[in-house]
Inverse folding.
């Protein structure tokens, strides 16, 4: 493969001052090869064979096809890179969003599916996680680190769901309001000390009954067994706030944020603790930061309503409350905020 | 390092040879340099060549010689780019993706100018009337071509072809994120 320069046009014998192609005397001077104007032009436009023209057209067509496919694949690559970066920074909400975008365009991309499942676990979106795990069933994960991470998450998953025996008890004891009597739950937890879900449900019930110290003991036991249990950490951050142990409450929020830097609950709960500590500006900053990450999280919106209330931003507070009234699902999250705003409950 | 006869590699990657020779011809046409013969592909050494007049300008000589480097690299990259991610990253490649990778690598790996191309540049820059700045550009180019030619014994041309399609998408994504 090369270009070969030729001073004489390739003919062995040539008459000087005559065109080497047609023999014309009207050669163009100042060129190394004696050629008349017409022949020079024809050699400049040396014909490209039809087969090569067809080959070139095929190549151009392939380039066009490739160009059509390029934006889609580059966009998947960008979302994948952003997801990886978010995972590295423990920004699991962003990571899940990015990997979901990747999977929308390349549904069979295994690593994205695993990373999406992992991200869903850390943001406690268990339905998405189970959907991803179903898709992964029967598929071989070659990346051992990724496999270990997924295994670790799936092993923890059972502690976020009721066991069969818990469900059986629930079926027997559920009262008319849909709750299991606390004493029955206490009996169950005593008999099944390793049932994390039951322990957390019990501590939650005790919390709502304002039996904070009993709830604290149970949650501490849970955290001794599983120091990174997200629900236990969330409850602890709230519980410590109610016990006016603000530094401890913030420590649990920080623990949540060290696991997932985009933990909306961690940020919102910390904002509520700041409110109790009369640090209203810090609370506002944090609650708004959480809303920038996720603008439809009901716990954060209820927190924001409280934060606006204590920062005397009544217009913004009322806007959030009005929007919450439209959605029956978010109303339960706003009960406490409404009680505080209407002075039914003394918050601080 | 295992040995595969060059003619087999050349035969398998013939689209790259054709694009390479076509690039020489198109650059000649662009600079209005008469072309006397073009062999786009043959089973032999060289696998293809373009016989043309010595251009009046030394810059044209260099450009005609290294033109395929740019054209083969750009076309190879454009063809293989969209397939590189499904093949190397996503593991979701289809037959079309593998074909695009083959074609892209075939074309990109023939981007390197040959020692014949280097010879043309060498003769041009060694002429008395060649300006110094062309010599400053020309000598390293000739040197790089010979390094590339030597490296092709160790699959440097194939490594270059794969690098173009493997690294380029990563770079694009890196700069876009």
């Amino acid at each position: 493969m090369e270009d070969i320069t030729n001073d004489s046009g390739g003919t062995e014998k040539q008459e000087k001052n005559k065109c080497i192609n047609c023999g014309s005397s009207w050669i163009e001077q100042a060129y190394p090869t004696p050629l008349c104007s017409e022949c020079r032009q024809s050699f400049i436009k040396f014909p490209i064979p039809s087969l090569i023209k067809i080959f070139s057209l095929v190549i151009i067509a392939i380039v066009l096809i490739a160009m059509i496919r390029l934006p889609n694949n580059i966009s998947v690559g960008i979302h994948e890179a952003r997801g990886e970066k978010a995972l590295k920074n423990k920004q699991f909400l962003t990571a899940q969003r990015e990997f979901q975008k990747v999977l929308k365009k390349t549904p069979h991309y295994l690593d994205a599916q695993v990373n999406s499942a992992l991200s869903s676990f850390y943001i406690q979106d268990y339905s998405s996680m189970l959907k991803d795990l179903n898709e992964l069933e029967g598929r071989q994960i070659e990346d051992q680190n990724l496999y270990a991470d997924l295994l670790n998450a799936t092993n923890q998953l059972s502690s976020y769901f009721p066991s069969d025996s818990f469900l059986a008890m629930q079926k027997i004891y559920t009262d008319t309001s849909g709750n299991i009597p606390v004493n029955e739950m206490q009996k169950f937890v005593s008999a099944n000390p390793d049932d994390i879900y039951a322990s957390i449900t019990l501590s939650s019930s005790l919390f709502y009954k304002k039996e904070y110290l009993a709830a604290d003991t149970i949650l501490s036991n849970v955290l001794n067994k599983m120091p990174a249990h997200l629900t236990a950490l969330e409850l602890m951050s709230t519980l410590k706030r109610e016990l006016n142990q603000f530094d401890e409450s913030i420590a649990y929020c920080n623990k949540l944020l060290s696991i997932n830097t985009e933990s909306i609950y961690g940020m919102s709960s910390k904002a509520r603790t700041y409110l109790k500590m009369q640090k209203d500006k810090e609370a506002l900053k944090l609650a708004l930061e959480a809303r920038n990450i996720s603008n439809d999280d009901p716990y954060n919106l209820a927190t924001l309503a409280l934060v606006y209330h204590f920062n005397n931003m009544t217009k913004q507070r009322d806007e959030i409350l009005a929007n919450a009234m439209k959605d029956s699902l978010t109303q339960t999250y706003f009960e406490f905020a409404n009680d505080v705003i209407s002075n039914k409950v003394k918050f601080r | 390092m295992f040995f595969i006869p060059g003619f087999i590699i050349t035969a398998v990657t013939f689209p790259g040879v054709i694009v390479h020779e076509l690039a020489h011809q198109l650059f000649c046409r662009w600079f209005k340099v008469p072309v006397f013969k073009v062999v786009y592909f043959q089973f032999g050494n060289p696998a293809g060549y373009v016989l043309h007049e010595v251009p009046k300008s030394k810059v044209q000589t260099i450009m005609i010689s290294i033109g395929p480097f740019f054209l083969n690299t750009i076309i190879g990259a454009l063809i293989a780019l969209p397939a590189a991610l499904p093949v190397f990253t996503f593991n979701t490649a289809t037959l079309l993706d593998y074909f695009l990778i083959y074609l892209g690598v075939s074309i990109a790996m023939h981007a390197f100018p040959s020692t014949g191309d280097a010879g043309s540049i060498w003769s041009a820059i060694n002429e008395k009337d060649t300006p110094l700045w062309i010599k400053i550009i020309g000598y390293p180019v000739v040197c790089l071509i010979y390094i590339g030619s030597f490296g092709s014994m160790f699959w440097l041309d194939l490594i270059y072809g794969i690098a173009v399609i493997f690294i380029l998408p990563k770079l694009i994504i890196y700069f876009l994120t």
About this structure: Chain B has a mean pLDDT of 89. The longest strand of chain B covers residues 35-39.
